[in-house]
């Protein structure tokens, strides 16, 4: 059995599969906020069958990775493996100036997105937008070359920055409106359209660069909030990082 782990800036998400290959049947899954990682071995992981392989990606730092490994060591003998970006893997070529400095979650999500696209049709240029605590927008050509990407603050960070830097503004519970007529709606709409604009601009750049209409996938905890605000076709795919972990595991020789 195969355990995939995705450690973001806010939550750890995990999924246990029958095998480490694309399309494998999922047996169990869950998520924990980072402050609750130390309860995994005594909680949701205690009754799981022992995995024979584990592959994960972590953007929360080495100390968080160590806490995850400690929880695994309490239960299982499986050797943890963590994905780091490289010059090429699983059909994707890394165009970053320093390939190993690319975030592991971005790399894995792109591999998952390209696999998702190729199982549904011919290769096309591809945009991968990951909307979470931070937002990343990646551009990949039809040959699988990662051309580059954007990083910008997530909606919550934008609102907190405005609250701390502007007198009289507070984090709102507003709605997204085309023409906001109150401060809460103005803040919520501004953050949403800022993210939408970044995605739409990258779609335009990739279309001009490749001479073809890109496919656009959106993932991340806040992706569902963003999709209605988009003016370009976007497909929501919640599982891109886990799809990527399965694809990488399939291409790697088991330990």
TrEMBL record:
What's a BP term from Gene Ontology annotated to this protein?
Answer: coenzyme A biosynthetic process
Location of this chain's protein in the cell: Cytoplasm
| Known EC number | 2.7.1.33
Its GO CC terms?
A: cytoplasm
* Binding locations of ATP: 6-13, 133
Instruction: Classify the main location.
Output: cytoplasm
Q: Which GO terms describe its molecular function?
A: ATP binding; pantothenate kinase activity
Describe which pathway this protein belongs to, using the record's wording. Answer: Cofactor biosynthesis; coenzyme A biosynthesis; CoA from (R)-pantothenate: step 1/5
Q: Where is the active site?
A: 105
Q: Does the keyword RNA-binding apply?
A: no
What is the required cofactor set for this protein? Answer: K(+); NH4(+)
What chemistry does it catalyse, as a reaction equation? (R)-pantothenate + ATP = (R)-4'-phosphopantothenate + ADP + H(+)
**UniProt: substrate binding residues:** 96, 103-106, 183
Sorted keywords for this record are:
ATP-binding, Coenzyme A biosynthesis, Cytoplasm, Kinase, Nucleotide-binding, Potassium, Transferase
The organism's place on the tree of life at top rank: Bacteria
Mind telling me which Pfam families this protein's record contains?
Answer: Pan_kinase (PF03309)
Cofactor binding remark: A monovalent cation. Ammonium or potassium.
**Quaternary data:** Homodimer.
* Family of this protein: Belongs to the type III pantothenate kinase family.
Q: What does this protein do?
A: Catalyzes the phosphorylation of pantothenate (Pan), the first step in CoA biosynthesis.
Query: What protein does this entry describe?
Result: Type III pantothenate kinase
Top-level taxonomy: Bacteria, Pseudomonadati, Pseudomonadota, Betaproteobacteria, Burkholderiales
């Amino acid at each position: 059995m195969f355990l995939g782990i995705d450690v973001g800036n806010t939550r750890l998400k995990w999924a246990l599969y029958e095998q480490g290959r694309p399309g494998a049947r999922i047996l169990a899954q869950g998520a924990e906020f980072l402050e609750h990682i130390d309860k995994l071995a005594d909680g949701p992981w205690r009754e799981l069958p022992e995995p024979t392989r584990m592959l994960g990606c972590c953007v929360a730092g080495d100390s968080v990775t160590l806490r995850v490994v400690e929880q695994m060591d309490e239960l299982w003998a499986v050797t943890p493996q963590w994905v780091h970006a490289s010059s090429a893997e699983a059909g994707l070529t890394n165009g970053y100036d320093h390939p190993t400095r690319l975030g592991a979650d971005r790399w894995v999500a792109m591999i998952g997105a390209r696999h998702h696209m190729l199982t549904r049709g011919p290769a096309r240029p591809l945009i991968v937008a990951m909307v979470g605590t931070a937002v990343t927008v990646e551009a990949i050509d039809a040959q699988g070359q990662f051309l580059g990407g954007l990083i910008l603050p997530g909606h919550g960070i934008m609102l907190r920055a405005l609250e701390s830097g502007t007198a009289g503004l507070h984090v709102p519970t507003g709605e997204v409106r085309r023409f906001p007529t109150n401060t809460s709606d103005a803040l919520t709409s501004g953050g949403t359209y800022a993210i939408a604009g970044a995605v739409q601009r990258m779609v335009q750049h990739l279309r001009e660069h490749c001479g073809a209409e890109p496919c656009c996938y959106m993932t991340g905890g806040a992706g569902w909030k963003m999709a209605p605000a988009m003016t370009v076709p976007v497909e929501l795919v919640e599982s891109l990082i886990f799809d990527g972990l399965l694809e990488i595991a399939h291409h790697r020789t088991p330990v």
